[in-house]
């Protein structure tokens, strides 16, 4: 099997970075602004001097003009925890390449961009629960841990986005930037889990990964369809009417999902697996304001 990413692919990511819409608190010196007061390259505001403030940060020009002692405050550049939540349920096995493989390559690219930006990156694969995780760490050494985990985890099991996100919030205690990579084909829904992220203050990006056959099915005639997560089999005679009904229902589902995410200011991108990954990253994710 080909590697998830190679050096040539990484080189073509060199000019990209993850867009962060809000300010975040962080633990290390990084590239994202955080609302902590202190010395940094980015000036924040003035405030009145109080005993104990460092004299170096007094603005003596303002003192000379206004006879007021004001202290400059700055915005720390702080690292941002980036959480990569990757759906590895059975439905992600479908397609060539499989949705799981496409999601893994995308997650690897996002991990690289985050680590290049001096952020902490963690990997949280899930089905109807969290699978073994790679806790957020900074430094390019973390890249090997992420790649190793992505390579060895097969897609299997049922999906529950709600349950997996609930478990994720309980086990990760810091808000950050959450990339949720999934086909969103979950009977148990997604709103409860996402609401927990919103309540905690996470910034969420949803990338929905679907196989072209799921978007525009070409199958016709008599068929025995198997539901991959339950093994339930349904015999069908598929004609134009059946395909038209399927596409209408899928369109309604996708529109409902997009509207819900838009109402909660969640960035969204649809990623069919026949779209080359570089096109998705360099064109669609940049146009969607997810990368720049």
Would you give an account of this structure?
The chain is α/β, with parallel strands linked by helices and 292 residues long. The protein has 2 domains: 7-22 and 79-287, Rossmann fold (3-Layer(aba) Sandwich), CATH 3.40.50.410; 29-78, no CATH class. The chain contains 9 helices and 10 strands. It has helices spanning 7-11, 60-66, 99-116, 141-152, 161-171, 191-200, 212-215, 240-263, 277-287; strands at 29-48, 70-78, 81-87, 120-126, 134-137, 177-182, 203-210, 221-226, 233-238, 267-272. The strands form 3 sheets. It has a 6-stranded mixed beta sheet, with helices on both faces. A two-stranded antiparallel ribbon has the order 1-2. Strands 8-9 form a two-stranded antiparallel sheet. α5 runs parallel beside α6 (191-200). The chain is elongated, with a radius of gyration of 23 Å.
């Amino acid at each position: 099997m080909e590697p998830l990413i190679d050096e040539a692919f990484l080189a073509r990511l060199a000019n990209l970075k993850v867009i962060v819409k809000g300010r975040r608190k962080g633990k290390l010196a990084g590239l994202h602004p955080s609302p902590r007061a202190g010395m940094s390259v980015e000036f924040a505001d003035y405030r009145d001097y109080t005993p104990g403030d460092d004299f170096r940060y007094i603005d003596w020009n303002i003192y000379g003009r206004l006879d007021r002692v004001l202290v400059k405050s700055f915005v720390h550049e702080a690292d941002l925890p980036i959480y990569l939540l990757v759906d590895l349920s059975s439905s992600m096995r479908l397609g060539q390449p499989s949705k799981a493989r496409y999601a893994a390559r995308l997650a690897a690219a996002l991990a690289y961009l985050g680590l290049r930006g001096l952020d902490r990156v963690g990997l949280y694969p899930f089905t109807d629960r969290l699978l073994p995780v790679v806790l957020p760490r900074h430094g390019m050494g973390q890249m090997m841990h992420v790649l190793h985990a992505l390579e060895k985890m097969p897609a299997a099991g049922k999906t529950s986005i709600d349950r997996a996100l609930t478990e994720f919030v309980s086990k990760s205690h810091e808000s950050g930037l959450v990339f949720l990579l999934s086909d969103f084909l979950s009977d148990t829904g997604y709103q409860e889990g996402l609401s927990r992220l919103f309540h905690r203050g996470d910034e969420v990006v949803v990338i929905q990964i679907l196989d072209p056959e799921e978007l525009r099915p070409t199958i016709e005639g008599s068929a025995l369809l198997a539901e991959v997560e339950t093994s339930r089999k349904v015999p069908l005679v598929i004609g134009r009417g059946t395909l038209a009904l399927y596409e209408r229902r899928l369109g309604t589902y996708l529109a409902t999902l997009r509207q819900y995410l838009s109402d909660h200011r969640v960035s969204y991108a649809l990623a069919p697996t026949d779209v080359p990954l570089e096109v998705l990253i360099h064109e669609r994710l940049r146009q969607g304001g997810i990368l720049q």
